[in-house]
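This week, think about what follows.
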Amino acid sequence: MILKKTLLLILLALLATACVSNNVVQTTKPTDYQMTCSELKEELSALGVAFEESREESGVTGGNVALAVVFWPGIIVNEMRSSRNQDSIARRAEHLSQIYNAKCLATQSEESAQPEMSESS
């Protein structure tokens, strides 16, 4: 009886750790257009890290293998969730990249295009 309970607890722990977290990222936020260039860069960098972490949760992982042994349809759910997470991160990164390009790169090109005033008058 104790062995069965212990085995059940181990299986439940495996199931709990095998699931991909639901980390869907909101594409737009009200404060996006007020972000500075450095804040946009930091956010884009953080999104890159989040995308890689989400990618690592998909495919053949230890969690998916354990899930396949206990509840094989869970792999499909994991893959769908991981794909949804990656898509949402990619959409957010694209949105912020557009803001960064319009705000920061346009400002840099305007500054470099302006001729410097000489003081020889």
User: Anything to note?
Assistant: Confidence is low (pLDDT under 50) at residues 117-121.
